[in-house]
Specification:
The complex is a heterodimer of chains A (about 140) and B (about 100). With about 140 residues, chain A is of the alpha+beta class. Chain A has one domain: 2-Layer Sandwich (Heat Shock Protein 90). Chain A has 3 helices and 5 strands, in the order E-H-H-E-E-H-E-E. In chain A, a hairpin with a 2-residue loop joins strand 2 and strand 3. In chain A, helix 1 packs antiparallel against helix 2 and helix 2 packs antiparallel against helix 3. Chain A is globular. By secondary structure, chain B is α/β, with parallel strands linked by helices. Chain B has 3 helices and 5 strands. Chain B has a 5-stranded mixed beta sheet with strand order 1-2-3-4-5. The longest helix of chain B is centred in the middle third of the chain and has 17 residues. The chains are: A alpha+beta (about 140), B alpha/beta (about 100). The interface between A and B is medium-sized, with 24 and 22 residues.
């Protein structure tokens, strides 16, 4: 099967539950995702949280963020797009394993769950473009 | 998230439920940290927590560290399967007090 769907959400922490709900709905349409869905939902929610926390530094905004799902040939691709501050890729670092501090955990989880993560900055409609893929 | 606190001697047990994410973290922090700062032994019952992300895990780390600083401890009780999975993914099962 193949699938291509997206939805836009307000950039704020109250949207995260909605992001998870939408992700759950999409993943339920992909039978192959059954054993991975809760982890993938965590990765997507963490990436959306990073947009609220870092691209917008927690400030109020009327901007939207877009989450796109593409599934084809057993590869799930999730794109997260936002119009916040351009991220500095060198600053997107996971926590070191032996570093017991609260920060960087979300990025660490994304890295643990997904197979590949790429990040692009564009000057077009969307500024930050995170792509996460997983073979399922 | 809703919660309930029971007290027995110096042990405060906080029963948390629902989803603990970035939005809920502050509320959970306002419940847990004053107990830790009051040097209570804090038991967090996580049986009914359906989802916890890095914000929730960060709070567990901070509460654990603060408890160590003030000479008490935070113990995680009846951890739900989904929360345990995230704790293990963060490789914190040897760091936090799991019961």
């Amino acid at each position: 099967m193949s699938l291509n769907k997206y939805k836009e959400f307000e950039v704020n922490s109250s949207s995260l539950k909605e992001v998870r709900s939408f992700s759950r709905e999409i993943l339920s349409q992909i039978p192959e995702a059954k054993n991975h869905d809760e982890n993938i939902i965590l990765a997507i929610s963490e990436a959306a949280q990073n947009i609220v926390k870092h691209a917008y530094n927690g400030r109020d905004t009327s901007d939207l963020m877009r989450i796109e799902f593409v599934y084809e040939n057993n590869i799930l691709t999730v794109n997260l797009l936002d119009k916040g501050d351009p991220a500095i890729p060198a600053n997107i670092k996971p926590r070191k394993l032996d570093d017991i501090k609260p920060g960087g955990l979300g990025t660490f989880f994304i890295g643990e769950i997904m197979d590949e993560i790429t990040f692009k900055i564009s000057k077009e409609d969307w500024v930050n473009h995170l792509t996460m893929t997983k073979k399922i | 998230m809703s919660y309930k606190i029971t007290e027995e001697g110096n042990v405060s047990t906080v029963f948390l439920n629902g989803e603990i994410d970035m939005e809920i973290r502050e509320k959970a922090e306002q419940v847990i940290m004053p107990l830790v700062e009051a040097k209570k032994e804090v038991h967090l019952n996580l049986k009914d927590v359906e989802y916890m992300d890095s914000s929730g895990i960060s709070l567990l780390i901070e509460a654990h560290q603060k408890a160590g600083e003030v000479g008490t401890k935070v113990v995680l009780k009846e951890i739900s399967k989904s929360v345990l999975k995230v704790i293990m993914m963060a490789k914190l099962e040897q760091i936090l007090n799991l019961d």
